[in-house]
Predict the structure.
Amino acid sequence: MATLSVPKRSTFNELFYSGLTKIPDGERVRTCLQCGTCSGVCPFGYLMDHPPGKMIAALRAGVIERALQGDTLWMCVSCYACTQVCPSKIPLTPGLMTKAKEELMLAGNIPSELQDALENTHRYGNPLGESPRRRAMWTRGVEPPVRIMSQVQRPLETLWFVGDYASYHPRVQLVSVAFAQVLNALGVDYAILGTEENSDGDSQRLAGERGLFEMLAEKNGRAFGKYSFNEIITTDPHAYNALKNEYPALGISYPVRHYTQFLAERIDQLKPLLRRDVKAQVTFHDPCYLGRANGEYDAPRLLLQSIPGVKLVEMSHHKETSLCCGGGGGGMWLDGFSWEKAHVRLSEWRVREAVNAEASVLAVACSYEAPRFEDAVKMVEKARRLVVRDIAELLAESIGG
Amino acid sequence: MNILVIVKMVPDLVEELAVDPDGKGLDPDWVRWKPNEFDDHAIEQAILIKERHGAQVTVVIPDMDGAEDAMYAAAARGADRLVKLRGDFTGSANNHALARALGKYLPELQPDLLLTGVQAHNDLDGSLGPLLAEFMGLPYLGYVAGVHLQGDKANVRKEHPGGVVAEMEINLPAVLGIQAAEQAPRYVAFSRIRQAMKTAAIEEQEIPHLDISGAAEVSLMKQVESGERAEMFAGDPDQVADRIVAVMRDHGIL
């Protein structure tokens, strides 16, 4: 095993290193081969002063401070591409890159767009800066009504954690309504938290705001604790990741599944309900936090293939090699900053791949993606006829009214 | 150097506002309070002065929902002393009442410089800075976007309309109405705010009586009513565009 020699002269370097070794598998950073695969596979590695491999080199040289200067580290979209390919299995995304962003955050080196989103999250419990009192407004007019936990007053099977964009973003609200229709068709006994729900905080955490994440987790944990239910489901892979992998360490532990997993398990019950043809050549974009971060590639594809009329085609990057939409790790709140730096958008790259796969529908399963890809469709030539649909919307369409 | 920053809590416009039953003010039950944005810049300016020249920064906020959060955030950014004014500020209390009360209390803190936001969106009876200067018998400069200390004077960058900037000298102590700090208010990580919650002490100052006299009285407050002159154009985009062009022609815009 290769060893890391940590020079004594830099206390900050030592602290950074010891902080890194405290996270699960963090000490694997010792085994870095300096192969550079991480920096090469990173969608924005070419723009970073210190992509992951070079950052580890700086850490070994005792000059991690150098890697934390400037602002190019904010191009990291926490997409797990580096972590996926690392031959030494170093937790680059959850460990190295997140720790580095935490240091930037503590030093106050943070783009103003991101600052706004974090301040909104702190103040309103959501990064969009919307009123927390209006978190369940999307349910207005939905029939049968979406029930709120505080009004149900009995034990329930399923708590649906809706999430920020699915609650507030006008485009993603349509997905929430579609998913409610699917749940109703299946006769699922469910409710949502309504105004008691706060942001899951996962993307804020990956943008370096660990303290804010913990505060949000505690609030959500207190809300969960008030009610009796068997499991949590969510349409948002970021919420899924937080609830599955991060909340338990804070003492908030519930069985949780992404909605595609929940529905795939009920496929025998769901299939007879899918009566209408959805004539489309569909390609599926694996969300980073469903796919690479949590290893779920089959459930969304099983659902798509169960819809009559759907022909599933794959893009050149799919499953483990899927491309990030650009919204992860704080990227959702850094669009202007990223454009200034890169003059390209990851979402447009992805839409071009969907066009090349001759898809008529780009299917998604993450609350960040429908608006990001629909914006990209407007910018990409030959993409004008590409339609972006969440899997929940395609299912609801096939079930019919 | 003692710098006092006076922060006003104002209704958060993220929430819909409701008029209270007597029709003379906002219904406080529906109001979410937040620190006035200009006052946030005043805090930042005070911290910048502290970092440049050395100073003790005291933040003074009326006791309302959200005031403590604002104080801890200020402490995390570098404020040294936090004072909460206890009294009934949610009802009819206006800037005259606040300035009059502060005029009595603040001299105890022996300020060399008082900063506050140049305005707030709920200033119905004039902004706080000039009123405070009047009640304390101090000079005032507003629309300030930069402060440098020179002995017992301050060199102040004052913004005028039309992109004109004046550099002015003012004797201390003085009250400054801050338009913008020299840099945008900094971000402090939530872990730092949480630390401040554990370590920072909040002092309390009783404000037993609020005298609202001297200000114009609100006789009626109501929601804006929609006018009847608006005409909605229906039809497909081409038809609507034709209508818009026709209307613009009629009015001599095209």
Observations:
- DSSP finds six helices and eleven strands in chain B.
- Chain B touches chain A through 15 residues (CB under 8 Å).
